[in-house]
Task: inverse folding
């Protein structure tokens, strides 16, 4: 057997060390060469997005970060005049936080929006990134609401089977609108998140509005900060007029608190889901302050047409209304705690019941078990 010398060990070791040293130096050098280019590309991409949402803007000032998490910068046109502002914010969607960039001109009119980041379902909520949806905001001003069928006036028509996503984007845009209005009224950056005082003088145009309209606006702004109108939530909790943002619980169920026009508690709306016959079924459930179900909507499903898909019909969803406590599925009866299954679609029906029961359980947890059931 040949004896291994010190040279046999040192030569390959030194060679390997030198190779690693050279490779590290090359990588470091490459990074030094490209780091400025990468940063420049990031800035150019950001400016490109700003130009999309604020087309009249050619140059942008420094980004200001507000206490409420929003950021904004001023955009100037080719003549150096203020063209508007570009804001970035986010809101909770179905698959997580959705980052949104919004352009608003000097008159408070939305000039464009871009989805910066999201984790929504491909083919459903992910459609929020399409021009078909984003363009629905352009030209609008003031507080917006989501509607399933219309994009007229203050309505933003929801993406089919993606109400939560549509509502999240609209909520983010409403934050920006509120921030712009606060800035335009002369509030300082430290005060932009404060609720306007009821004694704040209005502009001449606002004074021309009716007393009833002024009182309604004041009540909403002063007594219900953090709450906004939500047509989808109202559809399942009819007494609810204003709603908080959805908050996700450890179980995966998320909920929004609802208040009536007087600012009194109306109940809660829950976003829950369960596995159906062909995939996940997402359900929106309204429960009043007494623990009674006020409405159920199917947000998304991929069940068999003509069978499981019938869970979306009013005839099935209405079976839940007026009930409280844990529910069970039954093939022939909907009395008491029973929910009669859709014919030949027991699995789909059971999934909806499971999702509703998850909402009922969380209602009990939130209210300390003060459930009629």
Result:
């Amino acid at each position: 057997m040949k004896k291994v010398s010190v040279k046999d060990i040192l030569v390959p070791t030194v060679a390997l060390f030198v190779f690693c040293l050279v490779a590290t130096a090359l990588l470091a050098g490459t990074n030094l060469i490209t780091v400025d280019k990468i940063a420049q590309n990031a800035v150019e991409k950001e400016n490109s997005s700003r130009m999309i949402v604020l087309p009249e803007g050619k140059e942008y000032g420094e980004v200001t970060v507000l206490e409420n998490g929003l950021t904004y910068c001023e955009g100037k046109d080719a003549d150096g005049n203020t063209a508007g502002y570009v804001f970035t914010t986010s809101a909770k969607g179905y698959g997580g936080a959705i980052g949104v960039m919004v352009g608003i001109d000097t008159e408070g009119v939305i000039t464009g929006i871009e989805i910066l980041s999201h984790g929504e379902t491909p083919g459903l909520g992910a459609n929020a990134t399409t021009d078909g949806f984003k363009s629905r905001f352009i030209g609008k001003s003031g507080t917006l609401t989501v509607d399933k069928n219309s994009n007229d006036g203050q309505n933003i028509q929801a993406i089919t089977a993606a109400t939560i996503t549509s509502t999240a984007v609209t909520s983010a845009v409403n934050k920006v609108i509120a921030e712009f209005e606060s800035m335009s009224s002369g509030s300082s950056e430290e005060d932009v998140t404060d609720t306007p005082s009821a004694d704040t003088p209005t502009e001449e145009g606002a004074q021309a509005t009716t007393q009833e309209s002024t009182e309604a606006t004041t009540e909403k702004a002063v007594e219900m900060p953090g709450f906004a109108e939500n047509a989808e939530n109202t559809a399942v909790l009819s007494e609810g007029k204003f709603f908080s943002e959805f908050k996700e619980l450890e179980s995966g169920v998320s909920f929004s608190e609802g208040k009536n026009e007087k600012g009194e508690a109306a109940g809660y709306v829950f976003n829950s889901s369960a596995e159906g016959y062909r995939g996940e079924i997402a359900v929106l459930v309204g429960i009043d302050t007494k623990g009674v179900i006020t409405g159920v909507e199917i947000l998304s499903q991929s069940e068999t047409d003509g069978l499981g898909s019938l869970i979306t019909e009013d005839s099935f969803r209405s079976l839940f209304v007026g009930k409280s406590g844990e529910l069970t599925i039954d093939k022939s009866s909907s009395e008491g705690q029973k929910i009669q299954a859709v014919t030949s679609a027991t699995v789909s029906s059971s999934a909806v019941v499971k999702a509703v029961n998850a909402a009922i359980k969380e209602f009990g947890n939130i209210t300390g078990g003060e459930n009629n059931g």
In short: The chain has eight helices and 17 strands. The chain has a mean pLDDT of 84. Helices lie at 6-53, 131-134, 163-184, 204-207, 211-223, 231-236, 314-317, 346-367.
